[in-house]
């Protein structure tokens, strides 16, 4: 067997960000891996669609966090240590299958049968823990970080496994501790993270791809909503306006939220960038579900209160997160982008509070007007976006 053949089967992990200077993009395995999260996000959206109350939204959030963190775990490991050998592929594909199992039990979990979800999450985390343990074995330079990650993540997985045998509501308190360990640990080890950085071109692209996955739910929502009602001028108009909401968010996010704003801002800014995407993506999913129900409710005289709050709340959460990301990353107290995005969030909350009695078209049109105004003003005031010619940020800007 040649050396090349052996390296494809068994190649020790390496810290790619310390060796690769060129721009890096998602691999075919990473894109394949993302497909299972399309299903998971669709299942989460479906569970929220069946219960638009505050309780239903909180349940959705409780399930969304572990799904999002599962994606983060594999994505950041691959960014640092992926050698694309057979061992990495097999463990990643096993993790992908486990995410599929996790997705399959989301509807039951939303109804209260959460033990299978906890067990599936443990399986998802077990394979990424194995990948990190393999990197610890081969890479002394990564051990200061992985010596924290591996035991803490293992403890969190053990707690989730124990929770499956504990009745509710005590089970959810155990979940809270386990997820706090999982999600919160990177915030406490910033200096260790800086010794094992991630790739400056790869991570923003990967986060953007996950955002595309959740943004796709708004497109799916328009299709599902229109297929569930008889076509009319109003239902068609609401579908068009709902699509404008998703397209407007896409425009603002991908035109004006770039990695250049993170240059020289430090590890904590990279953490703010990453973690702010948790409420951002959850808000986009909620927005999509709200659009679906708005289209379906065009037969009535007014939009249901639960739908209005979900639609407006989802948009407000997404744009407020965008404002927070830009405010922290740009480091300017009067940055116009942050204020414009915050303005959309304020309009959305005002419509939620004062829009009782309005019909689906009126509510969605008001929201779309705010989003379109944001896009137009950014085009007019910031026509130089994307023309700075500045380099991408240093790798340590991104975590965990």
Write the layout of secondary structure elements.
Layout lengths: L2 H7 L6 H4 L8 H22 L4 H28 L4 H19 L1 H5 L4 H24 L4 H21 L6 H15 L5 H6 L6 H26 L5 H24 L10 H30 L8 H26 L5 H19 L5 H22 L19
Helix pairs in contact: 3-4, 3-5, 3-11, 3-13, 4-7, 5-7, 7-8, 8-9, 11-12, 11-13, 12-13, 12-16, 13-14, 14-15, 14-16, 15-16
Word description of this protein:
The structure is a single chain. This protein is mainly alpha-helical. It has helices spanning 3-9, 16-19, 28-49, 54-81, 86-104, 106-110, 115-138, 143-163, 170-184, 190-195, 202-227, 233-256, 267-296, 305-330, 336-354, 360-381. The model is unreliable at 1-6 and 385-397 (pLDDT under 50). Helix 5 packs antiparallel against helix 7 (115-138) and helix 12 (233-256) packs parallel to helix 16 (360-381).
Provide a brief overview of the structure:
By secondary structure, this protein is mainly alpha-helical. Helices cover 74% and strands 0% of the residues.
- Estimate nothing, just give the exact number of structural domains: 2
- Which regions have little confidence, pLDDT < 50, spanning 5+ residues? 1-6, 385-397
Please tally the helical runs, counting DSSP H or I stretches of 4 or more residues.
16
Distance between the termini: 37 Å
Give the radius of gyration. Answer: 22 Å
- In terms of structural class, how would the helical and strand content be classed? mainly alpha
The SSE string, one letter per element, is HHHHHHHHHHHHHHHH
Q: What is the general shape?
A: globular
How helix-rich are the residues, as a percent range?
Answer: over 70%
Instruction: Count every beta strand, where a strand is a DSSP E run of 2 or more residues.
Output: 0
Q: Mean pLDDT, nearest integer?
A: 86
Largest sheet descriptor? none
- Percentage beta strand: under 5%
């Amino acid at each position: 067997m040649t050396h090349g053949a052996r390296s494809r089967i068994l190649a020790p992990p390496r810290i790619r960000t310390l060796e690769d200077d060129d721009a890096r993009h998602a691999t075919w395995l990473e894109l394949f891996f993302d497909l299972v999260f399309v299903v998971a996000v669709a299942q989460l959206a479906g569970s929220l669609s069946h219960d638009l109350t505050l309780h239903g939204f909180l349940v959705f959030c409780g399930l969304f966090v572990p799904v999002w963190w599962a994606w983060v775990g594999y994505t950041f490991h691959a960014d640092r240590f992926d050698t694309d050998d057979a061992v990495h592929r097999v463990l990643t594909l096993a993790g992908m299958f486990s995410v599929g199992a996790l997705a399959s039990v989301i509807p039951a979990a939303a109804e209260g049968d959460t033990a299978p979800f906890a067990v599936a999450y443990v399986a998802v985390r077990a394979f990424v823990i194995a990948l990190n343990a393999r990197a610890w074995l081969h890479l002394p330079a990564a051990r200061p970080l992985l010596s924290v990650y591996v035991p803490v993540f293992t403890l969190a997985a053990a707690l989730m496994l124990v929770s499956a045998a504990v009745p509710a509501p005590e089970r959810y308190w155990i979940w809270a501790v386990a997820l706090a360990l999982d999600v919160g640990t990177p915030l406490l080890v910033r200096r260790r993270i800086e010794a094992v950085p991630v790739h400056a071109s790869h991570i923003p692209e990967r986060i953007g791809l996950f955002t595309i996955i959740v943004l796709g739910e708004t497109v799916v929502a328009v299709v599902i909503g229109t297929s569930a009602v008889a076509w009319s001028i109003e239902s068609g108009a609401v579908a068009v306006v709902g699509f404008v909401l998703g397209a407007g968010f896409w425009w603002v996010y991908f035109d004006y939220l770039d990695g250049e704003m993170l240059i020289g801002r430090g590890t904590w800014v990279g953490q703010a960038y990453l973690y702010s995407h948790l409420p951002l993506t959850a808000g986009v999913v909620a927005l999509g579900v709200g659009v679906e129900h708005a289209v379906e409710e065009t037969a009535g005289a007014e939009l249901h209160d639960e739908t209005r709050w979900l639609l407006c709340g989802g948009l407000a959460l997404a744009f407020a997160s965008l404002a927070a990301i830009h405010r922290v990353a740009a480091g300017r107290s009067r940055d116009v982008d942050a204020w414009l995005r915050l303005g959309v969030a304020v309009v959305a909350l005002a419509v939620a509070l004062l829009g009782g009695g309005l019909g689906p078209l009126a509510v969605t049109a008001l929201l779309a007007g705010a989003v379109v105004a944001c896009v137009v003003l950014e085009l007019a005031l910031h026509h130089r976006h994307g023309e700075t010619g500045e380099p991408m940020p240093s790798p340590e800007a991104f975590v965990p």
